[in-house]
Amino acid sequence: MFALFAIVFVGLLGVTLVIPLFPFFAYRVNAGPDMITAIMAVYAAGQFIAAPFWGKVSDSIGRKPVFLISTIGGIVSYVMLGFADSIEMLLASRAIGGLMAGNVAVAFASMADLTTNENRAKGMGLIGGAFNLGFIAGPAMGGILAGNDAASADLSMIALVAGALSAVAFVATALFLPETLPPEKRRKKGAGAPAAESHIQGGFKGIWLQPALAMLVILGFVYVAAGSMLDTTFALYANLILDYGPRDIGFLFSYLGVVGGIVQIATIGPLVKRVGDANIVKGGIAIYAVGLSVLIFSEWLPLIILAMTCVSVGNSLFLPGANSLVSRLAPEHERGLVLGVYQAANNLGRVITPLFSGLVFAKVGAHAPFVVGLVLLIPALALIFAIARRAPHVPVPPVRAA
Question: Domain span at residue 348?
Fold first, then answer.
């Protein structure tokens, strides 16, 4: 588990080095707010396309080869980003990066391989913790490298540093990551599901035959679509309202990573044992909604920090809880595929709303994207209540007596 945690962390360090600075990459090629969020949507579109593919391939050939192949592609995307001098090249770099980043589902599938139903959510929280630690160190490192003057920042160097970190992740994967899916548990071409798991025969189509699992996929889409209204406009918002440059935005993202890391590493395991995955997901959505509600009326830094703290806590509860529920319902031999489809639904949410979030920001107002996100959380909350009613058979960890 430690090797997987470390590799995910190093890989995310490269990704998060760039995320809070991306608007400034786009400004360099004269892209406006609407174009910036559309380019972000291209990255998510690549993840949407690739996540089920990488997940299914990993079910057949193992998790490690997929990590290695996709990491090489990620390195290529960062080199392209570093030398992008036009919107077209920026789009191409983000499209390739998104296709390679579809391997996130494989990381969750690897953790599912290594855990049992009793400690699955804790394992998913550990992977989530690696993501959040990446969000602590990456944005801070990017902000320090960039400085607070966007005009003088060496963005090419920052992109190449991200590529170098991905190269480190490639070497670490090759040398230290054991294969988590042994040959006898892999999906055989043309083979059906074992009798005990026949309820999800048929691969992708079979997912939609199980109501609770289908609703989880839809939930992932709706929740991430709501969150993307914030994710794709917050750097623009901080720049406009707080006059924050790359360094300040990077440090703010790092703070959010600290909050999320504490929640996912230290609290998910005990919480699951007490309340179960579904209740953690419910709480995550509710807390995220509180954060958006505060942010809608905030232009004062302490309130903005309070709002973003709630957003980080809510997100850090939702993600491992939902991934754990999905993995519990997925058969072992198709876990990568099912988690890939779930991640694809998440990424579709990152495609849809960024197509218009920048336009809403520019035409309606800086707070308007947060209002849209809050409205979208209403059906998300309704879905998790419906899922909890429809999936009483999902095994859950035993509740320990106090």
Answer: 2-179+204-390
User: Is pLDDT at 93 greater than 70 in this prediction?
Assistant: yes
The pLDDT, as a whole number, for residue 85 is 85
pLDDT digits (tens, 9 = 90+) for 114-131: 887 777 767 777 777 777
In whole angstroms, what is the distance from residue 207 CA to residue 202 CA?
A: 8
CATH number at 71 reads 1.20.1250.20
DSSP class of 194: -
More confident residue, 371 or 238: 371
Overall size of the chain counted in residues: 402
Q: Is residue 186, in this structure, part of any structural domain at all?
A: no
- Kindly give the interhelix angle for 63-82 and 87-101, rounded to the nearest 10 degrees: 170
Question: How is residue 244 annotated by DSSP?
Answer: -
Predicted confidence at residue 375, as pLDDT, reads 96
Q: Interior CA angle at 46 toward 170 and 114, to 5°?
A: 50
Which tokens in the block code for residue 352?
Answer: 């849809």
The separation between the first and the last C-alpha atoms of the chain, rounded to the nearest angstrom, is 28
Prediction pTM value: 0.69
Residues 66 and 103 sit within 8 Å (Cβ to Cβ): yes
Domain count, the chain: 1
Distance CA 262, CA 133 (A): 9
Q: Residue 189 and residue 123: Cα distance in Å, rounded?
A: 29
Please report the pLDDT score of residue 39 as a whole number.
Answer: 78
Question: Does the pLDDT of residue 388 top 70, yes or no?
Answer: yes
- For 233, residues 6+ apart whose C-beta sits below 8 A from its C-beta are 33, 37, 357, 358, 360, 361, 366, 369
Asked whether 273 and 398 are in contact (CB, 8 A), the reply is yes
What pLDDT, on the 0 to 100 scale, is given for residue 193?
Answer: 44
Q: Could you give the angle at which helices 354-363 and 234-241 cross, rounded to 10 degrees?
A: 20
- pLDDT for 401 equals 38
Among residues 276, 294, 394, 343, which one has the least CA distance to residue 127?
A: 343
| 201 to 109, 205, 208, 277, 326: CA distances (angstroms) | 18, 8, 11, 25, 16
Tokens of 116: 């049992």
In a domain, 141, yes or no: yes
Residue 191 has pLDDT above 60, yes or no: no
**Share above pLDDT 90 across residues of the chain, in percent, rounded to a whole number:** 22
